[in-house]
């Protein structure tokens, strides 16, 4: 206000009336800096919006077309919300004069194309929402004027192809959202000219092969979401070279195989999500090069066995999820070389029995162990050998256990779930009954009468 005072004095009464009157169909705050004219079916930007308005919310109207310089009379705008306004066309220069705009929301409209100069004049814009439109193609140069943009959301459109240099000029973009489109091809230079890109969302598209060359253009990428694409194979030849990548999400695809050294050039990778694929064969050395891996999710694949040495050495691996696969036994030897493993998920495998020393290689570090829903009928007396006070929770529910040995070494257990087992209430269960803390009373489902 201090800055505006001289302006105010100069403009005198004209400015005062304009600033004080709130258009009939709008709601304004006391200072007239926030104006909301939502769901009023207006077909044009109302011409009586106070000139000093900073935040203008027009969502849910029927603008259809944004003509050139539509907001020229509102040079102080920082936030402009045009969601759900049935916009089909943004004319060239539509936002001219909005040099202070930080956020432009054009989500949920009907844009099928963006003219070359539609976004000109938005030199301060930090966030552009174009989610939920009908965009089928983007032309190089479309975003060239958005030198300050940090987030670009193009999710839920109809994009099938990204041409080379399409994002040129977006020198500050951190997060590019391209999920829920129909992308099947990315030109090798499609992601060139995005030096600040850290996060790229490409999930829910039609990619059948990893666009390695395009992705490798984004050398600063830390998080890459590629889930829900019909990818069948990833190998070193796909050329994924991402020295800064920390999180790679390849879940819910159609992966049947991973080449040896598929992730050989991602030395900082901490999280690798491969859930819900169709992976069955385990190749030795797949993880070589993933020296920083901490969380590895392989749930819901078709893995039948994990060969010794396939996982390790992984000095920092903390979480290993192998639940809902086809493992017929605990892959004990494959757990060697994982000195930091804290959480092991093996539930939903047809394990049937736990043999002696099944968890010995990771017994020192393990805290959470999931063996529920694994058709377990038999647990050898030494099955949990090596595990001690470090183990905090043990899930054995939904199995076929009739008896369980006492586990006196597990003094640190905060949770043991034994529900959904047909335990026989006879002498065989006595050691367990003595061992389980007094406070624990079996529920009706836990025990079924012999
Ligand atoms: C906008 O148009 C719809 C459909 O014609 C109507 O139901 C609604 O009452 C209108 N809203 C206003 C504020 O005029
Ligand atoms: C195992 O138990 C955990 C915790 O209750 C649960 O989240 C998970 O879905 C269960 N897994 C299976 C395969 O039933």
Task: Describe it.
There is one protein chain. This protein has three helices and 26 strands. It is mainly β. The protein has a domain at 351-450: Ribonuclease Inhibitor (Leucine-rich repeat, LRR (right-handed beta-alpha superhelix), Alpha-Beta Horseshoe), CATH 3.80.10.10. It has an 18-stranded mixed β-sheet, with no helix packed on it. Strand 13 (199-201), helix 2 and strand 14 (223-225) form a beta-alpha-beta unit. The protein is elongated and about 85 Å long. The structure holds 2-acetamido-2-deoxy-beta-D-glucopyranose (2 copies). Residues 323-324, 347-348, 370, 372-373, 395, 398 line the site of one 2-acetamido-2-deoxy-beta-D-glucopyranose. One 2-acetamido-2-deoxy-beta-D-glucopyranose is lined by residues 323-324, 347-348, 370, 372-373, 395, 398.
Core attributes:
mainly beta, Leucine-rich repeat, LRR (right-handed beta-alpha superhelix), two-stranded parallel sheet, 3 helices, elongated, binds 2-acetamido-2-deoxy-beta-D-glucopyranose, signal, Chondroadherin like
Provide a brief overview of the structure:
The chain has 3 helices and 26 strands.
Order of helices and strands: HEEEEEEEEEEEEEHEEEEEEEEEEEEEH
- Uncertain stretches of 5 or more adjacent residues: 1-19, 441-450
DSSP summary: helix tally: 3
Name the CATH architecture of the domain at 351-450.
Alpha-Beta Horseshoe
By secondary-structure content and strand pairing, the structural class works out as mainly beta
Task: Please compute the radius of gyration using only Cα atoms.
Answer: 30 Å
The tally of strands reads 26
Strand content: 15-25%
Superfamily at the CATH H level of the domain at 351-450? Ribonuclease Inhibitor
Which compounds are bound in this model?
2-acetamido-2-deoxy-beta-D-glucopyranose
Distance between the termini: 81 Å
What is the residue-mean pLDDT, rounded to a whole number? Answer: 89
Tell me roughly what share of residues is in helical segments.
under 10%
Largest beta-sheet details: 18 strands, mixed
CATH topology of the domain at 351-450: Leucine-rich repeat, LRR (right-handed beta-alpha superhelix)
């Amino acid at each position: 206000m201090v800055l505006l005072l001289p302006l105010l004095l100069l403009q005198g009464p004209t400015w005062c009336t304009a600033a004080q009157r709130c258009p009939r169909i709008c709601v304004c705050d006391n200072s007239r800096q926030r104006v909301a004219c939502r769901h009023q079916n207006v077909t044009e930007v109302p011409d009586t919006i106070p000139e000093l308005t900073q935040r203008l919310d027009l969502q849910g109207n029927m603008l259809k077309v944004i003509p050139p310089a539509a907001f020229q009379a509102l040079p102080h705008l920082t936030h402009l919300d045009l969601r759900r306004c049935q916009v089909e066309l943004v004319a060239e220069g539509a936002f001219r004069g909005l040099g202070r705009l930080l956020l432009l929301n054009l989500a949920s409209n009907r844009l099928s194309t963006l003219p070359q100069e539609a976004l000109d004049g938005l030199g301060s814009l930090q966030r552009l929402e174009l989610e939920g439109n009908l965009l089928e193609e983007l032309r190089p140069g479309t975003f060239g004027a958005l030198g300050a943009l940090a987030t670009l959301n193009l999710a839920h459109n109809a994009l099938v192809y990204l041409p080379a240099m399409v994002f040129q000029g977006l020198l500050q973009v951190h997060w590019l959202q391209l999920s829920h489109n129909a992308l099947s091809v990315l030109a090798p230079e499609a992601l060139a000219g995005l030096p600040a890109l850290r996060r790229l969302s490409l999930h829910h598209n039609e990619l059948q092969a990893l666009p390695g060359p395009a992705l490798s253009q984004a050398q600063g990428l830390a998080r890459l979401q590629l889930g829900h694409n019909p990818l069948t194979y990833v190998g070193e030849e796909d050329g994924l070279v991402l020295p800064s990548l920390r999180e790679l999400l390849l879940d819910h695809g159609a992966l049947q195989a991973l080449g040896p050294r598929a992730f050989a050039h991602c030395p900082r990778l901490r999280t690798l999500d491969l859930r819900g694929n169709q992976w069955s064969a385990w190749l030795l050395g797949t993880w070589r090069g993933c020296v920083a891996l901490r969380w590895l999710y392989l749930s819901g694949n078709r893995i039948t066995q994990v060969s010794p040495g396939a996982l390790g050495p992984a000095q920092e691996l903390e979480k290993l999820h192998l639940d809902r696969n086809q493992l017929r036994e605990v892959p004990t030897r494959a757990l060697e070389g994982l000195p930091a493993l804290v959480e092991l998920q093996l539930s939903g495998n047809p394990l049937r029995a736990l043999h002696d020393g099944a968890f010995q290689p990771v017994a020192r570090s393990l805290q959470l162990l999931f063996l529920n829903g694994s058709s377990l009928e038999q647990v050898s007396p030494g099955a949990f050998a090596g595990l001690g006070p470090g183990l905090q929770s043990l899930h054995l529910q939904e199995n076929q256990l009739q008896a369980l040995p006492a586990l006196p070494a597990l003094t640190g257990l905060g949770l043991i779930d034994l529900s959904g087992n047909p335990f026989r209430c006879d002498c065989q269960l006595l050691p367990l009954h003595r061992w389980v803390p007094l406070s624990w009373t079996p529920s009706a489902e836990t025990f079924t009468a012999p």
